[in-house]
Amino acid sequence: MEGAVFTADEWELRPDPEGDRPWINPALRTPQGRRDRLHYLGRQARRRARKAAARQRTVHGVVPRVLRGERRVRAWVVGVEGAKARADLNLALATVEEADRAASRAGRSVLKRREKRELAQKLQLEAGKQLAVAQTTKSRAKRIVAGRGAFAYGALAVADTVAYGVADVWGFLGALVANLAGASWLGRDVEVSEEELEKLEQIEAGIPQEFSGGMTPRMFEQMIRQALTEDLKVTLSALRVDPYAWGFEVHVWLERMTPEKVSAGLDLLEACLPGVRTSSILLQQSAESRNYCVIRVPGKDPWQAVPELPYRAPHSISTPAIHTAQIGADMAARSLALPMMRTNVNVVGKSRSGKSTLLRAILDVLTATEDQIVIGIDLGSAGSGFGGLRRAMHVVATTPSEARRALWWALDVGKGRPALFDRLGMGENWVTLAARPGIKIIVDEFPALVRESRKGYLDPDTNKRVPWDLDGLLAELAITCAKSDVTILIAGQGVTKEKIKDNTWVVELPVQVLAACDKDDVVQILGDGVLAQGWRPDRLLPQMGDQLNDASVVYVTAGSTYCEPVPYRGCYAPPEELVRRGREREEAGLVDIDEESARLSSIKLKDLMEASRQAFATGDGGAEQDDVPRLIALIRRVYEELGDPGGLQLEEIAAGLAPLDPDRWDLDVFDAEGYGQAEREQARTAALKAAIRAVLAPAGASWTTDSYRRPGEQKTTKGYCLRHLKKLTGEAWNAS
C-alpha cells in the first residue's frame, strides 16, 4: 500500500484538558453531518413531544394543574373568615330547623306537654343567638372576602381589559394564556397515589406507554423487560434488542427455565405492548440453547425486505446448487432455499394460504435447471396452480389416467436406475448431470388426488370398479426412488385423515413446509410440544379478499439448515412474468431423458409430453377424457332430434345413435356369423346398456328405467325418461 496510514487514535477527538479541542465536531460541518444533526434534533423533539403528551394524562398535566391552581386561589380568597361564616350559618340553620321540629312536637303532644314546650322555647332562644352570630360573622367575612377577591380576580380582569384595549383580540388571548400559566404554576404541587407515582416515574424515565416502530431500542427494551418480568413473571438472565426496518428482534436468555411460559403468554405479551397487531408476535426457540429464544415484534410492514422472485435464465441452475436458489426470505431478508437434491418435500396450507405462490417459486427454480425433468400432477384445479410455468414443465397431468401413466413411468425409472449405478460408475446414488437428469414429480391439490384415486374406474373386462391407486404409487416413489433422484413434492390443504385418508407417510418426508394451517396439522407433522417452541403456523391468517394478511408465509423444517421456527415469505412474481419465463424456457428446449433410463420403462416420455401438449392446446384437461361426456351428449342429441319425448326405449336410443356415431353403434359393427337383424339389434342394445352403466359409474351416477307416457297414449310405458337424462346433463329437469 502507498500513502500515509492513519489509525483511529490520530483522527478521533480525544479529551482535551488544555482547551484546544474544537467546539464543533468537524463531522458536523459536512452536508451529511448537518443532515444527521437535524435528524437527531428532530428525533429528540419528537421524543420530548411524546413525553409531554403522555404527561398530560397524569396529575401533572396542564389542565389538572390549572384546576388545582384555581381551587387554591379560591380557597385563599375565601380564607378562614369565609369558612367560619359558612360554618356559623350552617349551624344556625340546623338549630332553627331543630327548633321548628321541637315546636311542632310540643303542639301535637298529649303526654309531658309542659316539658316539651319548655324545650322548644330553649331551642328557639338558642336558634336566635346562632342567627345573630351568623349574621355578624357573615357581614365581617363579606368585607374581607371582597377585598381579597378584588385583589386576586380584579387584577386579572383589569390586566385582561388593558390587553384587549391595547392589542384587541390577540392581546386578550395572550392575557388569558398568561392567566392559565399562572394558575398552572400555583397548582404545580400535588400528592399522588402509588399507582400514579409509578406511572409518572415511567414517563419521566422515558419508558414508552405504547409500541411504535420509530421508538429507540433502549425505550423498547425497557418496555419489553417490564412486560416479561412483571406481567408474564419470567426470570431473565439477559435481554438484548436489535432494531430492524421491519420491527424489533428481542434476544432473551432465561434464568433456569424454558421459553414455554413465554410462548403460552404471547397473547398477554401483546396486551402489555399497546399498538402491536393481534397474533403478530412470534417466538423462536433457538437451537443453540434451551433457555435462549428470540421474540420478533413486527411493525406495520414486516415483509418489506422480501424481494421479487429473482430472474433465472434457462438451464442456468444445476441440481447440486438448488439449495442456494432463493424462493423466499424472512423479515430480515435472509434467503430461503429448499434442499431438493434426492429429497422429498411436503407443503401444507389451508385454502388461500399462499401455497401456489410458493409452489410457483419452487417451480421457477426447477424449470430453470439443466438437469431436471419436471412433471406436474393436478387433479383438483386443472393445473392452474402451476401458472405460466406450465409451458416449461415436461408433463402436466390433469386426469387420473394421465397421472397414473406418468407415475408408472417415473416408478419404472426410479426402481431401475440402481442397476445402472455400478455400470455408470456413480457409487451408491444417482449422480445428476445434464446428460443424465433427475425427475421431479410436483403434486398439487393432494387431497383431490386421494379422492380421485379412491373413486377409481370401471374395468370393462370384469365390470368391477378398480381404484387408480395414485397415492399408493406416490408412496412407493417416496420410499424407493430417492437414491435415483426421482423425488416428489406434495402440496395439500392438510394432513389429517379426513383429507388424505391413511397417507400418513407425507408427514415423514424430510422437508416440511407449513403455511397457515390448523393446529392439528402442526402437531401431526412436527410432534407434541412444538407449539411451545414457536412453531405457530396456526397463528397465521390466510388471504381474505384483497387483504393479503399472511399469505405465502411459511415455517420450514429441513435438517440442521432449517431447524428453528423462523417464518419466511415466498417471493412473488407477476403472472405475466411467469408466462414470459415459461415461454422462454420452452423455446430454449426442455431436458430430455438419458437413453439408459429411457429403456427402463415401456412408457415413453415423448408420448407423455405429446399427450400433455394436446390436452393443454385443446383445453381438455381437468376431466377424464373418455366416452362419458360424449356418449351422454350423443344420447341427448337423439332426444332433441326426436322432439324431446318424455322417454325412449333402449332400442330407439341405439337406433338414433347409429347415424351420429356409425363407427360404434351401426348395426354392422355387431354383425357376427349366424346373426340376423334381431340378434344384431339385441347385441347393440346390450352393449349400449353396459356402456351407459360404465360411463356413469366413476361419477357415482346411474340412469335407471322409469314410467313415462307416450304422446297420444293414456297408459304409461317403462323406459329411459328425459327428466332423468336432464339431471345427468345438468339441465333443469322440470323445464319446458
Automatic annotation (TrEMBL):
It comes from the Bacteria. InterPro entries: P-loop_NTPase (IPR027417). This is FtsK domain-containing protein.
